[in-house]
Automatic annotation (TrEMBL):
Uppermost EC category: hydrolase
GO MF assignments: metallopeptidase activity
Record's signal peptide: 1-30
UniProt xrefs under Gene3D superfamilies: LysM domain, Metalloproteases ('zincins'), catalytic domain
Name of the protein described by the UniProt record: M48 family metalloprotease
Annotated source species: Novosphingobium aquae
Length: 489
């Protein structure tokens, strides 16, 4: 989480496919490519800096250059343009598994999604799918339907006015916050997703890649989603109510493999592994890091713990905290030195147009030596009464952070341990926080999945993370000379 000025994102989100590979199936047709119009170029150029801000900025260096090259190749295969200079391909500094493209020749993929892949054909498959959405003009067809509903952005200020303003708090409580990185966006129809899959398979064939990579990368995402659900204490098969209109990932994987048929092609595994070696994985310390239930921000030098049974998702503007009994986020806003006014202004931002949410009182306190203030309000929503709490902390004369929590009436106390856990960290502790990176190593004689997984830079699920990262199973046999990926400090 970084501290940035919050802006409305409805138009931005509608333009982006944001997570179009989000494990959501579909049905298809083929379509001829259309050239990039001047209008599309202008639209994309306007959205590009906003998207970079939304997703933590662009990664630079050799890994980004490698991904850019593959992305431009894929774009040429689509027939949108024969000029590589017409395309802007960006490796995003985000720990969320995500990829998207927008009109105007702009293609994006996050570093953690790239790290999950195991060969160049899978990278080309993801980017091909996203280019397919642009070729088929899906964002244009989707926009009118999407504007009829509140759109939850891909991370960031998910409780801010843009989300709550169109059905008050009830919609957020009913839907819940982010349900894992693969379920962040469900904005394409089934037929559009399948059409993009099918176009992507065709582009893989044109590029000489193994077209089965479309199915294998979808399987990798499914495996990652299941692991993430276990780590967070969610049932992997428990899809949120608002996602039930989309079929499960298994039919989509089978359909992609069927579309590829018996065709084969290059995978360029060694080239891919060399291209991504050393890439940052998981949270960027500049945006804070999540370790289990603890979030720490080394730049602002604070830390807090999520309540037992809750899990966190770190975004560029906020940290989302989600559990069965409620949802919350930690973020920041402009601070003029008065905590009471700050708390009331946050409540004002939660209200929709023509609505007000006013705390009964604003109480002052200190938490582990940090000046703090909080207020609560009970709100009528479509799913019943909801308790909203704003708990703010003054970290300096010009900087404040705050939690916004939502829970069913009477259940707000489940967040009390989190409020009390906010604390400052020392400069020494802050300096000790290092990023995780992807390391490609060569298997030696005697190495096993168990021995290599022990080197993973995590305190839990080391073997499971290792297997998913490398597309292996617990019975997989490693051979000397084989290259595998590790996540290390």
């Amino acid at each position: 989480m970084t501290v940035q000025k919050m802006t409305g994102r409805e138009t931005l989100v509608l333009m982006a496919s944001a997570g179009a590979l989000a494990l959501l199936p579909t049905v298809a047709s083929a379509q001829n490519a259309q050239s990039i119009s001047q209008s599309d170029k202008e639209q994309g150029a306007k959205a590009h800096p906003q998207l970079l801000e939304e997703f933590g900025g662009a990664v630079s260096g050799p890994q980004a250059a490698y991904v850019e090259g593959i992305g431009k190749d894929v774009a040429i295969y689509s027939g949108l343009s024969n000029a590589r200079s017409d395309f802007t391909v960006t490796l995003l500094n985000s720990p969320v598994n995500n990829a998207f493209a927008i009109p105007g020749g702009y293609i994006y993929v996050t570093r953690d999604l790239v790290g999950l892949m195991n060969n160049e054909a899978e990278l080309a498959g993801v980017l091909s799918h996203e280019v397919g959405h642009v070729v088929a003009r899906h964002s244009n067809k989707r926009q009118s339907a999407a504007t009829r509903n509140t759109v939850i952005g891909v991370l960031g200020s998910v409780l801010a006015g843009a989300v709550l303003g169109n059905n008050a708090i009830g919609g957020v409580v009913q839907k819940g916050l982010l349900q894992g990185s693969q379920l962040l966006t469900l904005k394409y129809s089934r037929s559009q997703e399948t059409e993009a899959d099918n176009l992507g398979v065709e582009y893989l064939k044109r590029g000489g890649y193994d077209p089965r990579a479309m199915g294998t990368v979808l399987q990798a995402l499914a495996n990652e989603n299941a692991l993430e659900a276990r780590i967070q204490g969610r049932a992997a098969t428990k899809v949120p109510e608002w996602a039930l209109t989309h079929p499960s990932d298994a039919p989509r994987i089978k359909a992609a493999l069927a579309r590829a048929g018996s065709a084969t092609g290059k995978t360029n595994r060694d080239r891919f592994l060399a291209g991504v070696n050393g890439m940052m994985m998981d949270d960027d310390p500049k945006q804070g890091i999540i370790e289990g239930r603890r979030f720490t921000h080394p730049d602002f030098r604070f830390s807090f713990d999520a309540p037992q049974g809750f899990y966190m998702t770190n975004g560029t503007r906020a940290v989302a905290i989600t559990g069965q009994s409620g949802q919350a986020e930690l973020t920041s806003a402009a601070y003029g030195g008065n905590l009471d006014n700050y708390v009331r202004s946050v409540f004002s931002g939660l209200a929709g147009q023509g609505q007000t949410i006013d705390p009964r009182t604003v109480q002052r306190t200190t938490v582990n030596g940090i000046p703090a203030a909080y207020g609560a309000a009970r709100v009528n929503s479509s799913s019943g009464q909801v308790d909203a709490v704003v708990f703010a902390y003054e970290l300096s004369n010009s900087q404040a952070f705050h939690f916004v929590t939502l829970a069913k009436a009477g259940a707000a106390q489940s967040f009390d341990p989190m409020f009390a856990s906010m604390r400052r960290i020392s400069a020494t502790d802050a300096a000790a926080i290092k990023p995780r990176r992807l390391s490609v190593v060569t298997v030696r004689s005697g190495d096993t999945v168990q021995s290599l997984s022990a080197r993973m830079a995590y305190t839990d699920y080391k073997l499971d993370r290792f297997l998913v990262l490398n597309g292996l199973t617990s019975t997989s046999k490693l051979t000397p000379g084989q290259k595998i990926k590790l996540v290390v400090y």
